[in-house]
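Lecture notes, part 5. Sequence design as translation. It can be helpful to think of inverse folding as translation between two languages: the language of shapes and the language of residues. The source text, in structure tokens, appears below.
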């Protein structure tokens, strides 16, 4: 039911020229307290070092030009997001040939923007646009072509055509940490951003990287991060100012200024197998402004984790499940956590439980081996993937991490090999550790289990 995620884009289907003096914007920034109330996306578990580059642009619709309408948000969540998602969901291509777009396989920005602009062409917030896609879906461009005017009408036929193409929900992304943005991209999730733009960004030459804001502030704008390149030290974005802007509609933003110019970042998850049920039409005179983040289809999933003493020597009067674990495959001594997970009916995809580790005071425990690290460097480990067919399941899970992979105090340093025998009465060092399991469906965090305190004595 949940699959590929795309954090939204910002561009358009037209391919006409965009001159610096003619560009439009249209993003109304979210109030800080409202933006902060939206749950943050969990960082997917990579299990290795991040690659030096990733590029999702081959799967994106061609960049276009929003013209003089302030509809960049509509272009982002409808034309870009749903076109990207449905390309994978439906296993179709959106191009009929070189330069020819199949209008039935790309989605109308007007269907979204015309419902969230309050009857005026003054731009829009992201959150109402997400809610349109969640509740009503996205209409194909063939059912509702893009026109700068009018900017309030919604044909009934477009509403009917939109019903099969919905999102399940959305989350914010921690854009202050470039590695978290990279991790979403590596897992195939474009990251939609709201950014402050300046004159030198509007004038960005082909192939150049935007290294610093110069000139006057021009406006808040929606774009989508579609890749990164460590050699360039920059994120790749797709824009909505025509193919004559930047490099055929694409540009680069330096890692160093990314968190300075970006105000918001999101990813959204697709909803597959949607039943086409009619929904109540929106009052076009009243802007939609719903800030409560939607519950995901898999939010009813539950996770348990068994208590455990992790030590060379655990007291026999403690009712823990086991002491420590010698992994038969790796020969390493380490931590093996177990529990159960219940996933409700109707959820399909690949499930994985990821368990980050931190100290009891909330400090993140750093990893010593890259295959047991989140992109931030925090120690974490995950289960094998489990295929979900929609029937609902309750199964046991386990995950293992060797002690040599986690940066905690220890009295015995033996690498990953078991330090047997431990001398009687040897003064081991105690660390109070907390494990926090999260269920991911298709690499999107959907449910959290209870935190489990662990006494680690090494």
């Amino acid at each position: 039911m949940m699959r590929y995620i795309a954090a939204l884009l910002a561009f358009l289907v037209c391919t006409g020229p965009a001159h610096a003096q003619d560009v439009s914007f249209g993003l109304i920034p979210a109030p800080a307290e409202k933006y902060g109330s939206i749950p943050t996306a969990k960082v997917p578990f990579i299990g290795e070092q991040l690659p030096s580059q990733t590029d999702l642009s081959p799967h994106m619709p061609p960049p276009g030009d929003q013209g003089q309408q302030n509809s960049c948000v509509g272009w982002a969540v409808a034309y870009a997001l749903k076109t990207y998602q449905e390309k994978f969901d439906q296993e179709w291509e959106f191009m009929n040939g070189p330069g020819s777009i199949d209008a039935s396989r790309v989605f109308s920005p007007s269907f979204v923007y015309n419902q969230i602009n309050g009857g005026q062409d003054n731009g829009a917030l992201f959150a109402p646009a997400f809610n349109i896609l969640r509740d009503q879906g996205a209409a194909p461009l063939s059912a509702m072509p893009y026109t700068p005017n009018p900017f309030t009408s919604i044909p009934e036929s477009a509403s009917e055509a939109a019903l099969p193409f919905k999102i399940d929900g959305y989350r914010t992304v921690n854009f202050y940490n470039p590695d978290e943005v990279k991790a979403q991209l590596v897992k195939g999730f474009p990251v939609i951003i709201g950014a402050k733009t300046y004159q030198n960004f509007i004038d960005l030459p082909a192939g150049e990287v935007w290294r610093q804001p110069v000139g006057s502030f021009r406006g808040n704008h929606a774009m989508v991060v579609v890749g990164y390149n460590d050699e360039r030290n920059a994120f790749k974005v797709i824009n909505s100012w025509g193919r004559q802007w930047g490099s055929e509609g694409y540009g680069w933003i330096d890692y160093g200024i990314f968190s300075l110019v970006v105000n918001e970042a999101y990813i959204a998850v697709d909803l597959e197998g949607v039943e086409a049920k009619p929904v109540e039409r929106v009052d076009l005179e009243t802007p939609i402004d719903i800030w409560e983040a939607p519950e995901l289809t898999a939010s009813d999933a539950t996770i348990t984790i068994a208590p455990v003493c992790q030590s060379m020597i655990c007291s026999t009067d403690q009712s823990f499940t086991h002491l420590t674990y010698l992994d038969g495959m790796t020969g390493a001594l380490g931590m093996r956590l177990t529990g159960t997970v219940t996933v409700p009916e109707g959820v399909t995809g690949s499930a994985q439980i990821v368990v980050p580790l931190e100290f009891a005071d909330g400090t993140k425990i750093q990893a010593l081996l890259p295959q047991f690290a989140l992109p931030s460097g925090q120690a974490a480990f995950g289960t094998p993937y489990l295929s979900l067919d929609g029937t609902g399941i309750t199964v046991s899970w386990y995950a293992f991490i060797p002690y040599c992979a986690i940066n905690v105090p220890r009295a015995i340093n033996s690498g990953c090999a078991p330090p047997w025998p431990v001398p009687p009465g040897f003064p081991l060092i105690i660390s109070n550790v907390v494990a926090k399991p999260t269920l991911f469906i298709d690499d999107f965090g959907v449910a959290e289990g209870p935190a489990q305190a662990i006494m680690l004595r090494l």
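The translated text above is only one of many valid answers, since several sequences can fold into similar shapes. The longest helix spans residues 72-89.
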